[in-house]
Amino acid sequence: MNNEVPQDKSLDNSLSLYQEGYHFIQNRVEKYQSDLFEARLLGKHTVCMRGEEAAKLFYNTELFQREGAIPKRIQKSLFGVGGVQALDGKEHDHRKSLFLSMMTPLEEKKLGELVLAKWEDCIEQWEQAEHIVLFEEARKVLCRTACEWAGVPLEEAIVAERADEFTSLVDAFGAIGPRHWKGRRARTKLDEWAGSLIEDVRNGNLDAKEGTPLHTIAFHKDLKGELLDTHTAAVELNNVLRPIVAIAVFITFEALALHEHLQSRTRLTTDQEREAFVQEVRRYYPFGPFLGAKVRKDFTWRECDFKKGQLVILDLYGTNHDEKQWGEADQFKPDRFLKEEPSLYNFIPQGGGDPMTGHRCPGEGITVEILKATLDFLVNKIEYDVPKQDVSFSLVKMPTLPASGFIMSHIRRKK
Ligand code: HEM
Fold first, then answer.
1. pLDDT tens-digit profile of 332-357?
2. DSSP letters along 324-354, please?
3. How many Å apart are CA 70 and CA 86, to the nearest integer?
4. Dihedral (C-alpha) 315, 318, 324, 328: value to the nearest 10 degrees?
5. Which phi and psi angles does 373 have, rounded to 5°?
6. Distance (Å, rounded) from C-alpha 351 to C-alpha 124?
7. Whose Cα sits closest to atom 4 in ligand 1?
8. Is residue 69 in contact with ligand 1, taking CB distance under 6 Å?
9. Which ligand 1 atom sits closest to the C-alpha of 316?
10. What's the pLDDT tens digit per position in 281-303?
11. What is the ipTM of this complex?
12. Closest of 41, 50, 70, 22 to residue 359, by C-alpha
């Protein structure tokens, strides 16, 4: 126990976490007027923190480790067992280099062009429809895009089913009950499917082009010079496909931002302005709520004694909304990204720190390119109406989404 650090008095906060969602840490930061406090979560003393300085600390790999920090229920749904997320040290760096090698600026651009082409393919069908739900369309478009880019064969007849399975993995992380179990079943199915693709490529039954993620992962060698076991390779292939499909959440918020912040829409003429808009979408709207790590060795920071083995939670959403860093944090203002470059630790929708040396998401470039291409599509390639609907989103449900999924009607190709 730390006498100097605020202690949340509740016997156990696990229920409050589910009841307060994205605001759980923020609420207590305000209550205790401290970026750091202790609480009991799942029966254990846990340090909760937010803000740029806290993020710098959290990404110090000499002080924190991921092994043992990710609950089994999250590994068995969202991440998969054996993936890069739970590795540390040299093993992590080596596996991470596999991801970074697939996500070069050239590949990121390729994905942007591919997704734009897939969006354009939808227009004819949409022109015949009374309305479409953007989230539903986005996850199918992204599933086709992800598989084509990765070299993974995907029949059109099963696109909707696959897209739904990938979504269930993401939907499971903040859920208890049926939503969680749907994700667990999808995980088993997707890992088996990806595993059979890996085996087929390795034994020559499936032709995978060199340079595609399917080929690269199938023939990646670990530090001992051995191929990854089939299950681990399958988990890593899904670690590429699943998050690309998940960008559908940001796309839905992107369309909402275009609709609700019309003044920003008029300033999307240059690439810089479009990028600033996309960055503000990633900062402002909620997606990943927080991350956990385990203390590697005893140390003291800001009069708080961190004990070896203790769980520490970093607030991603709260750091992106920290008033100290972001003036008028609760307003959607893309221009802020034109004036100032964010740091590696204050803008952390996809984790913080350096992606080469730590756990920061290697897919940020892909996310930004896909969101930019989609913005171009929504603004320059089509016209549409936004009928009356419920676009509110909960800050309790994790992950969240506008209730309607964003309905668009009377869609026509822009002349
Ligand atoms: C890691 C969010 C897109 C692949 C992460 C982390 C977050 C995150 C919060 C954890 C960082 C940490 O543990 O410190 C997101 C969001 C995305 C997205 C919100 C957009 C929807 C992508 C894409 C890819 C990707 C497009 C790849 C195609 C990964 C991988 C990791 C990761 C492999 C694990 C990195 C590691 O442990 O070293 N992401 N991500 N993500 N992301 Fe993303």
1. 999 999 999 999 999 999 999 999 99
2. TTSTTTTS--TTHHHH-PPPTTT--BTB-S-
3. 7
4. 160
5. -65, -40
6. 38
7. 363
8. no
9. 9
10. 999 999 999 999 999 999 999 99
11. 0.98
12. 70
